[in-house]
Amino acid sequence: MKIHPFTFLYLFLAYWGHSSYYVAFLLFSILHEIGHYCMALFYRFEIESVVILPFGAFLSLEDFGLHAPYQEIIMLIMGPFVNLVLGLVFYILEINELFEINIFIFLFNLLPIYPLDGSKLFLLFLSYFVNYKKCFQIQIKLSLLTLSVLFVYTKQIGRKIVIGYLLYQTIVYLKQYSYIYVKTLLNDHLKKKRIKVNKKMNYYRPYHNLYELNGKLYDFETIKIYLLKSR
């Protein structure tokens, strides 16, 4: 686990200004990430790093996109689920401030903005119905649209900084998604029960893809090279 240098600065400022709210927010953000971390361990993801940033924590996985989609969905849901449970506990205990912090973290992380959980969940659910490469493009457009709306309606400077950081992450992702798509194609060797018969050069990640082309049926491994060329 790594701590970003600016996090120490924010903690010092919080201590100096007697801001227990920020400390509580950071603590529950870390617990959120621990929820992801525990499920990542359970499903044997390759964990690259856990970084504590000034406004939360971030779990980086080497092989996200290479596991079964249901495993990734459960792993992603577990973070917000932690905050939802904590929020309900503090609601019952009538500790309103801690209830509000956890519900805010829960809702914020479900926004369809990359790299938040909501954006990744949107990508995974969409992949059951839409060609996987097209899923990335829709995901990025929705992320940019949501960021634009938030930027217009957000007045606080601190929140605008967070929106700026998320915009930067989305732009980086825009430049990298083709590589991620190719990596997924090349490393898709999972056994899948559901079959998807394609009459076009599409790739539906959750399914075992078959291709009916020119009156003949081809398997995914045979067509894979043509999918890479047609990207």
Structural key phrases:
231 residues, alpha/beta, 3-stranded mixed β-sheet, 8 helices
Describe the protein.
This protein is α/β, with parallel strands linked by helices and 231 residues long. It has a domain at 1-110. Helices cover 63% and strands 13% of the residues. It contains 8 helices and 6 strands, in the order βααββαααααβββα. The chain has helices spanning 5-16, 20-42, 69-92, 96-109, 117-126, 132-153, 157-186, 220-229, and strands at 2-3, 47-53, 56-61, 195-198, 208-213, 216-219. A 3-stranded mixed sheet has the order 1-2-3. Strands 4-5-6 form a 3-stranded mixed sheet. Helix 2 (20-42) crosses helix 4 (96-109), helix 3 (69-92) packs antiparallel against helix 4 (96-109) and helix 5 (117-126) runs antiparallel to helix 6 (132-153). It is elongated, with a radius of gyration of 20 Å.
The share of residues in helices is: 55-70%
Low-confidence stretches: none
Biggest sheet record: 3 strands, mixed
Number of helices: 8
SS strand fraction: 5-15%
How would you describe the shape?
Answer: elongated
The quaternary organization reads as: single chain
GO cellular component, one term: membrane
Family: Belongs to the peptidase M50B family.
Protein name: Site-2 protease family protein
Subcellular location: Membrane
